[in-house]
Amino acid sequence: MNLVVLTGAGVSAESGVPTFRASDGLWEGHRVEAVATPEGFAANPALVQDFYNQRRRQLATVHPNAAHRALADLAARWTGEFLLVTQNVDDLHDRAHADTPPAPGFELIHMHGELKKARCTASGVVCDWAGDLAPAHASPHHPRGTLRPHIVWFGEIPLEMERIEAALARCDLFVSIGTSGAVYPAAGFVQLARMAGARTVEINLEPTQGARLFDEGVYGPASETVPGFFGTL
Ligand code: BJW
Predict the structure, then answer these.
(1) Whose CA is nearest to atom 70 of ligand 1?
(2) Is 141 a known active-site residue?
(3) What average pLDDT score do residues 22-39 get?
(4) Sequence ranges of the domains in the chain
(5) Which bin fits 147, alpha (ψ -120 to 50), beta or left (φ > 0)?
(6) Ligand 1, residues 110, 183, 226, 229: which to mutate, most atoms within 8 A of Cβ?
(7) At a CB cut-off of 8 Å and minimum separation 6, what does 181 contact?
(8) Which residues form a coiled coil (predicted)?
(9) Residue 39 — φ and ψ, nearest 5°?
């Protein structure tokens, strides 16, 4: 059986990583356009680099929770294909899977990028990055390049879309965990899975706007619902 799991900020919430769509419409005190668009970066690179520097530093203070660990346990025993697509830019799935090596059919894709990577603006080369980035950080990969966060901002194309769409086209089970379904193309994955004839399940604190698109909903904190749901498979 082929499985695709999509995760969003809700899977990391109980680890202490804030979700995006708080009621005040701000992301950690900033307007979305200021910190999550190429235009915002061009207008104020110092603000944007500082925003991501702080979030990169915060990773040292957070740890995978029971939901990340349940997915890693599943990946270790799943015999079919298992694609885990995360919209999260934290490294909590990676760390959970490092502790529990996955079976050969498993892959993890960070479709919106990763805080712990940087990208050269001139060559497109992506490299591991653990420290801070300066506003115009010289790139080691190109004489005219600078390093930016390896993050997919609004208006940019998410990563690995061909591989994700191919996996959705052949999946038997699609599970969406801890995402509001407010951001495309991830919000449309459930429809692609339905077209493939997959069983579709939403796991969230509460039903989302798109809940009617799923065959089933499981509601409650991810640290309880994710181990509970996958423990029965
Ligand atoms: C819990 C929980 C617990 C809490 N347990 N659950 C008009 C119509 C349609 C589309 C568009 C449009 N105008 C523009 C667009 C496109 C645009 C878009 O979707 N905009 C919308 C706002 C409408 N999309 C794009 O621009 C994307 N690119 C694109 O479309 O390119 C074209 C293209 C696509 C494909 C092929 C070819 C071309 C790019 C989107 C990039 C998104 N980037 C961000 C920011 C990254 C930087 C950063 O991290 O700072 O990624 S946006 C932000 O939202 C972040 C997240 O990954 C993403 C999704 O958020 P998520 O994870 O769902 O979080 P929340 O906070 O919204 O929800 C949390 C959920 O958890 C809630 O439901 C809670 O209930 C739940 N929860 N605690 C279980 N304990």
Answers:
(1) 179
(2) no
(3) 80
(4) 1-17+63-112+158-232, 18-61+113-151
(5) beta
(6) 183
(7) 187, 190, 208, 209, 210
(8) none
(9) -65, -40
Q: Which residues are CB-contacts of 21 (< 8 A; sequence separation ≥ 6)?
A: 180, 182
Per-residue pLDDT band at 144 (split at 50, 70, 90): very high
- 28 pLDDT band, cuts 50/70/90, is confident
pLDDT at position 25 over 60:
no
- Residue 31 CA, ligand 1 centroid: distance in Å: 15
Using a 6 Å CB cutoff, which residues line ligand 1?
Answer: 8-10, 13-14, 19-21, 36, 87, 89, 112, 151-152, 154-158, 161, 178-180, 182-185, 204-206, 208, 221-222
Q: Atom 68, ligand 1: which residue's CA is nearest?
A: 180
In order, the DSSP letters of 130-146 are -S---TTEEPSS-TT-E
Arithmetic mean of pLDDT, 27-51: 92
Instruction: Quick: pLDDT tens for 177-198.
Output: 999 999 999 999 999 999 999 9
Query: CATH second-level architecture of 1-17+63-112+158-232?
Result: 3-Layer(aba) Sandwich (3.40)
CATH 3.30.1600.10 fits 18-61+113-151, yes or no: yes
Q: How much distance in Å is there from the Cα of 184 to the middle of ligand 1?
A: 6
Amino acid identity for residue 226 in this structure: V
Task: Find all residues with CB under 8 Å of 8, minimum gap 6, and list them.
Answer: 19, 86, 87, 88, 176, 177, 178, 179, 180, 186
